[in-house]
């Protein structure tokens, strides 16, 4: 069985009212299939509970498409919501919330920064004379 493509099973939900919580989104979208993750990013710059959008990840891409087809431009708490397939973020993550930074992954560093070279000696402390190049 092929690995699940979370980009095709994650929906972006825009235009959310301040009253919408993860529980409300779960109740609204559960008729379309099993939900594996819901995230509504908070707004640290205001007193609003969130930024007006969220993400819902379904277990199956077909369930996400059914939810998109049925819920796009529907009304939730008096506001029209937009439901689209989520695009991968700039970091290229899976869309499942906070993840480990790539620079914290030794395999990634080895492949993309060091190549096959492995540094066995730590750098020496103190000034380095670069004039004798």
Descriptive tags:
133 residues, alpha+beta, two-stranded antiparallel sheet, 4 helices, 6 strands, 18% strand
Describe what this molecule looks like in 3D.
By secondary structure, the chain is α+β, with helices and mostly antiparallel strands. The protein is 24% helix and 18% strand. The protein is built from four helices and six strands. It has helices spanning 6-9, 22-29, 61-71, 106-114; strands at 10-14, 35-39, 53-58, 75-76, 79-80, 82-85. The strands form two sheets. Strands 2-3-1-6 form a four-stranded antiparallel sheet. Strand 4 and strand 5 (79-80) form a beta hairpin. It is globular. The model has no long low-confidence stretch (mean pLDDT 80).
**Structural class label:** alpha+beta
Distance between the termini: 56 Å
Unreliable segments of 5+ consecutive residues: none
Task: Tell me the total number of β-strands.
Answer: 6
Number of helical segments? 4
How would you write the strand order of the largest sheet?
A: 2-3-1-6
What form results from the Cα inertia axes? globular
The profile of the biggest β sheet is: 4 strands, antiparallel
Q: What share of the residues lie within helices? A: 10-25%
Range of strand content: 15-25%
């Amino acid at each position: 069985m092929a690995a699940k493509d979370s980009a095709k099973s994650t929906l972006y939900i825009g235009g959310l009212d301040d009253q919408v919580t993860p529980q409300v989104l779960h109740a609204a979208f559960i008729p379309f299939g099993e939900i594996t993750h819901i995230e509504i990013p908070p707004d640290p710059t205001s007193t609003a509970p969130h930024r007006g959008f969220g993400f819902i990840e379904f277990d199956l891409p077909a369930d996400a498409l059914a939810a998109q087809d049925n819920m796009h431009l529907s009304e939730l708490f008096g506001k029209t919501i937009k439901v689209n397939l989520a695009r991968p973020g700039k970091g290229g993550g899976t869309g499942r919330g906070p993840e480990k930074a790539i620079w914290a992954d030794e395999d990634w560093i080895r492949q993309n920064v060091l190549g096959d070279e492995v540094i066995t000696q730590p750098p020496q402390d103190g000034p380095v004379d670069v004039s004798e190049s």
